[in-house]
Amino acid sequence: MYKHFKNQGYNPNLNSHQIYFIQRWGELLENTHIHYRKLLKPSLRSVLKEALRVIDHFKDQVLYEHNIFEILEEVIETLNNNIVLKKIYPNDFNLIESRIKNFLSNKQTFMELKSELDKYKHLNLPYTLMTTLYNKLENEDIPKLYANYLKDELNKPTLSFETVDGLIELVISELIYEGHNKQYLFNWGNGVFIIDSEPNFLKRVERISELGKKNRRPFDCFITLKLPEGYDSLFNHKEGNITFHKDPETLRVEFIEEYSLEEPYHKQLYEFFQTDKHISRIKLESTDEVAAINSAREELISTTKLFTLENKHKQYYPGNLSEAIVYDFQGNQINMDPYIETYQQGLQISNNEKYIKINLSSKMNNKYQGLDQLLQWCRVIQDSPRETGLVAMWSLLEYLFVTDSFNKRKNVLDYAIPYICHFYLKSLAWRTRDILKNNNSENLTLMEEVKNILGEKAIDNLKKEVKLPYFIEFLATNKQKALDIYSDKVIEQRYIGLINRYLSLRGKKLWFEKYLETLKEQVHSDFLRAYRMRNILAHQASMDEEFLDEIYDVIAFYLKLIIDDLLYTITLQPNNSVHDLVKVKRESYEDYLEELKNLDKVEDVNFKKLITTKSLLV
Known about the structure:
This protein is α+β, with helices and mostly antiparallel strands. The chain has helices at 16-29, 44-59, 66-81, 83-88, 90-105, 107-112, 116-138, 142-154, 161-178, 182-195, 201-206, 248-259, 263-273, 289-305, 352-365, 371-382, 386-401, 408-437, 440-454, 468-477, 479-485, 490-502, 511-540, 545-572, 578-594, 607-610, and strands at residues 217-225, 242-245, 278-286, 324-328, 333-335, 459-460, 465-466, 505-506, 509-510. It has 5 domains: 5-39 and 142-214, no CATH class; 44-138, no CATH class; 216-335, no CATH class; 352-419 and 531-600, no CATH class; 422-512.
């Protein structure tokens, strides 16, 4: 979230939903989420492209037919969720949705076809329709369409926070698909929506149209690294977009002369090129400089991985590849300190030292059964590149959750999903309390109100905060009091309203139960996507980078949550095996769902139990 929003002297006449749009833009792109999953879903074009790839892989006998049914269901869901493009292309959307639904309604007939050729013929229509829509969207200026739609919507006198959430998630997903880096979009939003001197907010929104693929431009990226011995021939290789240079000083002079760089850059360039390392030079086109330098780094990592195939280079390490500069041809500008996105490989569990100790003792006394193998799988994931890491993640899921070898995938889904759903409300409550605590004076007022209504027991005086069960109880039963305290804080009001809504009764059930059904479907789709990616990788050892990026971080987070919960639980119950605890978790989740049912009034809710989870993440 943009921390200095109030200090920018921004136009005070904005509607509350316009202010929320600005703050939500930053919040969705910040790097400090404690949320249960990545908030951004794949864009429509991404899902269409994946669906076409799935059908291609089915024809190549890489994927089974159930993958087709699953991705087509995702296509329909994504079409329905995209309120922006659906309004612009109603006929296209209705046609493809009706034909795909017709195909899915005849699923059994399709499966009973004996000839592979007949199956391919049945797939021709949905494949052609999706290809046509995908190509149509690719040829449109999508950011401009979204900018025009947003201008109309945000100009309305009132607009719900929920609608703004949906719109902003759609547009950011599309901009990421266009090729933009999240960090760049964060910085862009800060500059355009907050710092820009343009007084008309809707004209600022209109600038989203500048972020399309048509604005891709050339960049020249320089990254320091250390090449292994015996590869001198690479210094003479000048073909392609990557070249290697062993004489940094000569390269510096050539660089300055080639682009006629001005004097102010010379000193900084001298410091960068004054190195005992080699330098790689990567030329590429990109939508922004952050995406450019990170794409260049990824391409360099992919290239240097091949240097380890020879036995003599087994220990080769090129460096962390974070020392870099990027030159923008179009603006004749150099960024000497570009943002380098370093992926967190593996799982990063919360208390590694503790689990190492119990693993050592488990070898002595045969307690903590299954823990050693669990940690070994974590090590495989940790040591693997992202492609093989994703394959290893699914193998770990199978190790943990498969009880029936005839239906492995179903076992994983049945046992893994409760960990994510069980965690969500605690994650949301924790984040909401953190947001409210950022405003110190209002937080003190909130604590006093809670103390007056729920008693001294509700306050943690040492941490100067409301204890979490009492925090959600207060927001569930005293929404207006909380809103009055934060009367001029838009994003705080949004989170207060969200907690209150989840914990309100709809008949004799908490509304949160309905939300968990939606969450379960999303997590289910994420796991199925990971399974498809795993199968493609296992057969082909490669895939489009965009698909890998979309799912890797999500599954890594899910596994991190599952492992933390499991490891914490096993420290309390050393005589039970890992697999015993996995089975208990699913049963405890069923009990959790029962807490959301058959209530007469909100006061009957066991708020403490609703946020009970063993995970150490929050």
